[in-house]
Specification:
Elements (H helix, E strand, L loop, with lengths): L18 E8 L4 H14 L3 E7 L8 E9 L12 E6 L2 H7 L3 E10 L1 E2 L6 E3 L4 E2 L11 E4 L1 H5 L12 H8 L6 H11 L5 H13 L9 E2 L8 E5 L9 H5 L5 E3 L5 E3 L10 H5 L5 E5 L2 H9 L3
Parallel strand pairs: 1-4, 4-5, 5-9, 6-10
Antiparallel strand pairs: 1-3, 2-3, 7-8, 11-14, 12-13
Helix pairs in contact: 1-5, 4-6, 5-6
Length: 298
């Protein structure tokens, strides 16, 4: 994203001449939207702004990172390691992963929410964790329990809680609150404008306490997946076997795919999506059936 070049307005004479911001999190948390809000505030203040982003496997909860650079005349869209004035991270591990970008005097605002990738879970269906916890915040990190600070503002949409971090950053930047409100109204879904502004103001007024307790995002156990394979349609290309992250599928002696290890299946649907012959279908047992089956026969 490239913007107009302009001298900062007279109201912004106390503003930093330039700066680098890294926004990080996982898919579905609003990382790109947050970086758009930040970029608009900077644009409206008269700065040249460049923004870039890496989505990664965002649709499956993977890493999403956005770089925002501003100044009188900005040429590169990429923030170099050790040069970020601010890191804004919506997820704890992603925040720690982004710390190499932080300058010596930089500040990282990191949510204590943890959204662990499936590969870090010992029980993929139930969400039992096999991931080390962090006991203390590293130097330069301001840890914020965004859900607790947002409170009822995030009651109907959990992602609203992360707007608290925008408020925390805004408190360190010399731009008026109304400029942030205007940008938030421009980028968030219309039905969530008031909730986002409330979360923003609570973040702007929040004074982080230490130590901060890490908060695990709730994990909902998924009913077992049911994988059906139409043997007559399967030509034995081996794609499903190769892409299955849990090695649930195998080719039998006739080179036909079979659901050999159903106990491993997490229902990711990669096999179904990538089957060139549409021979695989993934469905889920109804929740009430799953509960009754787990309880045993009556």
């Amino acid at each position: 994203m490239s913007a107009r070049t302009a001298e900062p307005t007279s109201e912004k004479e106390a503003s930093p001449v330039s700066g680098n911001i890294v926004v990080a999190g996982v898919g579905g948390q609003g990382v790109i939207m947050a970086s758009n809000v930040i970029a608009q505030v900077l644009l409206d203040a008269g700065f040249d702004v460049k923004k870039s982003e890496v989505h990664g496997m965002s649709q499956r909860g993977g890493t999403v990172v956005s770089h925002v650079r501003f100044g009188h005349d900005v040429h590169s869209v990429t923030v170099e390691p050790g040069t970020a004035d601010w890191v804004v991270a919506f997820e704890w591990e992603e925040g720690l992963r982004a710390l190499p970008y932080l300058a010596d005097e930089g500040v990282a605002f990191v949510s204590t929410e943890r959204r662990l990738p499936p590969a870090s879970m010992s029980d993929h269906r139930g969400g039992a964790l096999a991931y080390p916890a962090a006991d203390a915040s590293p130097r330069g990190v301001v840890a914020i329990d965004t859900a607790a600070v947002a409170g009822d503002a995030a009651a109907t949409r959990a992602a609203v809680a992360q707007t608290v971090l925008l408020g925390a950053v805004a408190a360190r930047l010399p731009f008026p609150a109304e400029a942030w409100h205007t940008a938030i109204r421009s980028w968030v879904p219309p039905k969530t404008v008031e909730e986002n502004i409330t979360a923003f103001e609570r973040g702007r007024a929040h004074k982080p306490a230490s130590p901060t307790r890490l908060r695990q995002a709730p994990v909902v156990a998924r009913p077992p997946a049911l994988v059906s394979i139409e043997a007559a349609w399967c030509k034995g290309c081996n794609i499903c076997v190769a892409v299955c992250p849990e090695r649930c599928l195998e080719l039998d002696r006739f080179d036909v795919a079979v659901f050999a290890h159903p106990e491993r299946c997490t229902g990711c649907q990669l096999c179904s999506w990538l089957c060139p012959d549409l021979a695989i279908d993934v469905s889920y047992q109804a929740q009430e059936e799953h509960v009754h089956a787990a309880a045993g026969p009556r």
